Amino acid sequence: MLKRGAGPVLNPAGTYLVESASTGSEAFGPPLSDPSGRMWPTIFDLSVRTAVSDEDAPLRRVRFFGPDDLAAGVYVGRVAELVEHFDTSNVPVCAMDVIELHNVQQYIEHGLLPHDFTESERAIARARVGQIQSVVARFFSAVDDANCADVMRDVKYEYHRDLLDLLGRNKAFERCSAAAMQHALRQADVRMGDILACKKLVAAYGGEIRDAMLEAPRNAEHLVRKYMERDARVKVYLPATFTPADARDLLERYVDSPNANPNYVGLIETAPVNASTGVDAKLKLRAKRRNAEMTEKFFEETIGLKVGTEVALSDAQDEPAKFEMDESGGLVARFTYSTRWLDSTRDNPSILNNFQHLFEFGNDHVLLTLPSYPAQLGVFERFMSMSGVTHYQVGVGFPGARMEQLPSNAAIPALLGGERLGPGGSHRVVL
């Protein structure tokens, strides 16, 4: 029902508010009439305001990230609102509204609706899937040279992939000339990454996209994602006219560019030699030198942290092993092993015991601790780090484990009866 008082009440943003009979909370109501008798605009009118400010209104538009994405719950209320007010006699005329309907359709298809929806309400929502599909198809089937720039102009960047997907599904790329589409893409500020993720767009305008890629060295990052990055999140499609020579030229210019990303340069450095990807030994060497140059420059401008390991053998120590961490000038791990203990444990069972418990090469289940296991990878290493297809993927704890295992390599000759690390009662090696 309407807020208490004489007539409809407007909040400071100009929105009609209603009060929920069950909770008393403010909620969005259906289209209403204002005091003058004029009909309140429908939800498809971009001038309509929601319970958030005009500045935040775009954040409320529905986006479908996948059925398992936790963000789905944020949009369910808006989905229900759009389903309730959908009317085939009053269809949207703005690309953003149509794309939002496309996202609403995917919510309905995956059953992502409010928990308090009754079976009849769910049935009504499912019945509107075909109607929504028809509205979306009719809108994008009308896109041609004359209106493509106007259609694409106001689409927000986070919906660009949906936009290109719907244009491709409805054969807009077959109706629009390369010049008109290229102008529309640039006007809408569609990024090269989104363009290369649309297979139908790349197939339709391959020559123009190739030329656009070669204009900027930074576009080499898309080649790195396609050929060199492990588990790239978005598939990259290249024009048929884009040759290995083009790839080689673009990668070289990227390595030499002042704005090259060290992560991508590192992936080029470690990429396997392959003529089809444009990677050869000279390019790898060039990337290696550039990477070293950027690293050196970074530490010229940044105070580094001293990290290392020291190992010592002591004739006077009673304990088999002692460990201490020196944090005075960084992080330096110091391991000291007793030579008397090592000399007294030369039989085979004791040597095996030392490898497992003294040097910790194995855990309590006699499994090697040296490798990096997938179970040791955290969320950051699994989903947010950048690694190449040939990289050995390690977790955040792996360097620490290596720091503990490196001293063992220096102490092993003494354990096996070989040469001591040096004369005297205490022998030290810095690693």
Number of strands: 6
- Biggest sheet, open or closed, and with what strands and sense? 4 strands, mixed
Given the helix and strand composition, which structural class is it?
alpha+beta
Distance between the termini: 75 Å
Which percent range describes the beta-strand content? 5-15%
Count of DSSP H/I helices: 18
- Principal-axis shape equals elongated
| Major beta sheet, strand line-up | 4-5-3-6
Mean pLDDT: 79
User: What are the low-pLDDT stretches, counting only 5+ consecutive residues below 50?
Assistant: 1-58, 419-431
Helix content: 40-55%
* Topology order in helix (H) and strand (E) letters: EEHHHHHHHHHHHHHHEEEHHHHE
Instruction: Give me the Rg, rounded.
Output: 32 Å
